[in-house]
Amino acid sequence: MPTHLTEPGLPGILKKLGSMTAIRDTYLVEQSLLRTLGPLLGVLETSLYRVDDNGVVLRALHHARTMVTEEDGVQRVAERVEEIANDQNIPSAVRELLDNVRLLGKPCRRKTGNDLLICYPLRGGNELCGYFVFQRDREVTPVEDAIVNGVLEVFTNYYELLDTSQRDQLTGLLNRYSLETNLDRLWNLLSIRIHDSENENSRRDKTPKTYWLGVLDIDHFKSINDTYGHIMGDEVLILVTRLLQSSFRQSDLLYRYGGEEFIAIIAANDLESATLAFERARKKIEEFQFPQVGHVTISGGFSGADPRVLPQEVINRADSSLYAAKHAGRNRIFHYDTLVKEGVLKEVASGSIDLF
Ligand SMILES: Nc1nc2c(ncn2[C@@H]2O[C@H](COP(=O)(O)OP(=O)(O)OP(=O)(O)O)[C@@H](O)[C@H]2O)c(=O)[nH]1
């Protein structure tokens, strides 16, 4: 698909690369990559697919540019970025192309009507971590190919560096800094996902349209450290992380929020499913035999991650519920609204919570 927009030359691309590496948010860097490569290749639409270790698409980012004419007759470029949380809506032609790239380990293309659908692999180290896809009416020239490969390499190296700074070194989970800097973006994303799944077009989309935020905390962790030493304490933290990761879905988000405190943001259809998901995680840890230490339990509190409520308020609600769970004897996970209904927690006007 040819574009009628003015395309930047090499100085423009270098400037965009400079801007891309000035960004400190991994999601915005991904958008910036698409903004850089679209004009370079003379296409209006580009996509980025992120995959897990098994090649399953975790999310897709689509970027589209259009020329719009303002009321005063002035033309400007309008940009739209769309994020899809899973691989249910990937067109079959794209899916087949992604599979080819994964199998062959190099860029591939296939014909769709008069156009070519072209896909480049993204590599983090030697591992395939995603795909860059676009469609246009002509082949990629050797010069374009070299530039695309160069830009993708700068992108993946920079992305990895940023990603490392957003992760906790011990557990590999996203850290508190990353949660706090991304809360607003995350909240926007939740409202888009909820809006999308309510949309006529996404009727077949099985993604649950409600999200839940839980604060989970290891019980009596200080005494684990005191009895078995810090190294054993670290080992427990790593094992609890792995158990939580294997209990929640790949698409759920898990953060290390403090020393022995985690935040999980999970998708579930209703309160019953959310309760089951958090309970499954609690039980999984309760039933696990930790080397030397034996049994370890967690307590938690959770609340609906309603995008209309300020994110910090939702964290406070979950945190107060966690406090109530500790107060009630630990090894249990409480739901905020239920506690308010039962009169265990009182919601005060400011949004802060009093425990009776
Ligand atoms: N080994 C290890 N310990 C940590 C780490 N971060 C925090 N801690 C310890 O975690 C302990 C948390 O203790 P407390 O906040 O008193 O809570 P607790 O003992 O779990 O008690 P409850 O939460 O009330 O059940 C402290 O002793 C911290 O030193 C870490 O990265 N590794």
From TrEMBL:
<dbReference type="GO" id="GO:0005886">
    <property type="term" value="C:plasma membrane"/>
</dbReference>
<dbReference type="GO" id="GO:0052621">
    <property type="term" value="F:diguanylate cyclase activity"/>
</dbReference>
<protein>
    <recommendedName>
        <fullName>diguanylate cyclase</fullName>
        <ecNumber>2.7.7.65</ecNumber>
    </recommendedName>
</protein>
<dbReference type="InterPro" id="IPR000160">
    <property type="entry name" value="GGDEF_dom"/>
</dbReference>
<dbReference type="InterPro" id="IPR050469">
    <property type="entry name" value="Diguanylate_Cyclase"/>
</dbReference>
<dbReference type="InterPro" id="IPR043128">
    <property type="entry name" value="Rev_trsase/Diguanyl_cyclase"/>
</dbReference>
<dbReference type="Pfam" id="PF00990">
    <property type="entry name" value="GGDEF"/>
</dbReference>
<feature type="domain" description="GGDEF">
    <location>
        <begin position="209"/>
        <end position="338"/>
    </location>
</feature>
<dbReference type="GO" id="GO:0043709">
    <property type="term" value="P:cell adhesion involved in single-species biofilm formation"/>
</dbReference>
<dbReference type="InterPro" id="IPR029787">
    <property type="entry name" value="Nucleotide_cyclase"/>
</dbReference>
<dbReference type="GO" id="GO:1902201">
    <property type="term" value="P:negative regulation of bacterial-type flagellum-dependent cell motility"/>
</dbReference>
